[in-house]
Specification:
The complex is a heterodimer of chains A (about 425) and B (about 100).
Chain A: E1 4-10, H1 14-25, E2 30-33, E3 48-50, H2 51-55, E4 67-79, E5 84-90, E6 101-104, H3 106-120, E7 123-125, E8 130-135, E9 141-146, E10 152-160, H4 167-171, E11 183-192, H5 195-202, E12 208-216, E13 224-230, E14 234-242, H6 243-247, H7 253-262, H8 267-270, E15 274-284, E16 295-296, E17 299-301, H9 317-337, H10 343-354, H11 357-364, H12 368-374, H13 381-394, H14 401-416, H15 418-432
Parallel strand pairs in A: 1-2, 1-10, 2-7, 4-12, 10-17
Antiparallel strand pairs in A: 3-6, 4-5, 4-6, 8-9, 9-10, 11-14, 11-15, 12-13, 13-14, 16-17
Helix pairs in contact in A: 1-3, 1-9, 9-10, 13-14, 14-15
Chain B: H1 3-8, E1 13-14, E2 22-24, H2 34-42, E3 48-50, E4 56-58, H3 68-72, E5 79-81, E6 89-90
The chains are: A alpha/beta (about 425), B alpha+beta (about 100).
Chain lengths: ~425, ~100
């Protein structure tokens, strides 16, 4: 493989496939490298797909993409030890011709997406690890070294879509190592059930789906979240905490998921299911401040390798697709104008990304990682207090409601103090501002 | 069989026999290594175990390639971490 390509894309996930498609469509000679035996085989996600970012690349994706169910109801639960208090938003407004979000199975989706890249003309090669970047004596990236025999491959530009660990970018010194305090480790199980059982348990039609996000006792006082998404004939259940919290001890990823499965609010939803896969994955949750320099001489970073994740709104794959597309559009334009892929020229990618929801949203929540570390009570105390308040208020036991209100307020004040409560409210509002 | 092993049993792996992709750099110096000890409870696949003598041992067969041990051990010079050779390792069916 001594051939030279216009562009090499490392990693056939959402970011890499998006970039490969856009460049291949422009007539560029694109190599898409994947280390797994098929695209998706190394990839893990919840998974909720947002339509908008994909529509900008494949407008009619609904006709061929492997979509599981479109989400018609979103629930947010605060779990206490014995139950949960929650809110849900369900609306017929979600039942439109072109829904904006779907539950998907990542492996199937990535396979489909990379087939689209192949159709556009990109060359997909699996079973191949990009071991390092090839650089010239000026430090310019000129290709990748693979683990195949004689595996040096050259290109004018390399798109690093190699995921959260981004070994290539780190080895080359293009970005700092992940901070354990702001990197989530999520464990996930796939529970299989007949479609009609899922539909009756969640009160949904055969194409409809439910997404449940959970905070509270499930993460044992640590920063973290759980999720449950309905697929056609499976339920994805996952839970994640920061690696830095796991390091303190007392928790294991598999222990957390086992406890979540046994929780009285979750157990009946999974009853009788067959687990067919257990996976785990890291999520870069450092936000805006952790986004590294995403372009240089002959290279760009896209998706997770650029740390583009909005953990508050569980968005990541959409940002991956948008960043992959914008990087590719920048490259396409430079190619058409006959300009070199220098850092100065590729900086147009960052400028384009700054103008989108990707950087704007990350900037909006830039204080969030710090806020969460300083305010762990959000994940432990409040769900317990809320569940207690609901139990007190809803119990019909001859005690008048005014007295109950006083009791509830007393428990809140005792556990957090008046200033604590007020402070939390203000800080929370500020972090979201 | 421990609980995590039962979970991993559901997964599909193509094990690269005799070529573990992660290795403890100094197997004779694992006792008292805080980072490696953390790996025994942080690794989601339970690949790291502590022996009765207090040594940390690593078996990568069930590895899901998340990178947790890699970031825990960063800068500690105690771990050699690479991806499995192309096509080897875990192959998720659903992901």
């Amino acid at each position: 493989m001594s051939e030279k390509f216009d562009a090499i894309v490392v990693g056939a996930g959402p970011a890499g496939n998006a970039a490969a498609i856009v460049m291949a469509r422009a007539g560029m000679n694109v190599l898409l490298l994947e280390r797994g035996e098929y695209p998706g085989s190394k990839n893990v996600m919840g998974a909720i797909l947002y339509s908008n970012a994909l529509e900008k690349i494949i407008p009619d994706f609904r006709e061929s993409a492997p979509l599981e169910r479109h989400i018609v109801e979103q629930r947010v639960w605060m779990l206490s030890e014995k139950g949960h208090v929650g809110g849900s938003f369900r609306s017929d407004e979600f039942n439109v011709e072109k829904p904006d979000r779907y539950a998907i199975i990542r492996v199937a989706f990535d396979r489909w997406f990379s087939n689209k890249a192949k159709e556009a003309g990109a060359l997909l090669i699996c079973d191949t690890v990009a071991k390092s970047l090839l650089q010239d004596d000026q430090g310019r990236v000129i290709g990748v070294k693979t683990d195949r025999e004689g595996g040096d491959i050259y290109a004018d530009v390399v798109v690093l879509a190699d995921g959260v660990n981004s070994m290539l970018a780190r080895q080359a010194g293009f970005r700092a190592e992940l901070d354990p305090a702001n990197t989530a480790l999520v464990a996930k199980e796939m529970h299989f059930l007949p479609p009609d059982v899922i539909q009756s348990r969640f009160n949904i039609g055969e194409k409809d789906g439910v997404a449940i996000e959970m905070v509270g006792s499930l993460t044992k006082g640590k920063i973290g979240m759980g999720f449950l998404y309905t697929n056609k004939e499976s339920i994805a259940l996952g839970i994640g905490c920061m690696v830095g919290d796991f390091q303190e001890g007392g928790l294991t990823p598999y222990g957390l998921i086992d406890d979540l499965k046994a929780h009285p609010s979750i157990k009946p939803l999974l009853a009788g299911s067959e687990v067919k896969e257990y996976s785990a994955h890291l999520i870069p949750e450092g936000g805006y401040k952790a986004v590294p320099k995403i372009f240089g001489d002959g290279w760009v970073l896209v998706g997770d390798s650029a740390g583009l994740v909005n953990s508050i709104h569980r968005e990541g794959s959409n940002m991956a697709m948008t960043s992959g597309r914008l990087a590719a559009e920048t490259i396409r334009t430079l190619k058409a104008e006959g300009k070199p892929f220098s850092a100065a020229n590729l900086s147009a990618y960052r400028k384009a990304l700054d103008e989108t929801y990707v950087i704007k949203d990350l900037k909006k929540y830039e204080g969030m990682p710090g806020f969460l570390h300083g305010n762990r009570q959000i994940f432990s105390l409040y769900p317990e207090l809320m569940a207690g308040a609901a139990a007190t208020m809803l119990k019909v036991d001859g005690v008048d409601k005014k007295t109950k209100e006083r009791e509830i307020f007393k428990t809140f004040r005792q556990s957090r103090g008046l200033f604590g409560l007020l402070g939390d409210a203000i800080k929370f509002a500020r972090a979201f501002r | 069989m421990s609980k995590v092993e039962e979970k991993l049993f559901q997964n599909r792996y193509l094990v690269d026999e005799h070529h573990p992709h992660i290795a403890i750099k100094h197997p004779d110096r694992t006792r008292g290594d805080e980072a490696l000890l953390q790996c025994t409870f942080c690794c989601p696949a339970g690949c790291y175990t502590k022996t009765e003598e207090g040594d940390i041992e690593l078996t990568t067969d069930g590895c899901v390639e998340c990178g947790t041990c890699r970031i825990i051990c960063q800068g500690k010079d105690n771990l050699i971490w690479e991806y499995p050779r192309g096509g080897f390792g875990v192959s998720f069916k659903f992901g």
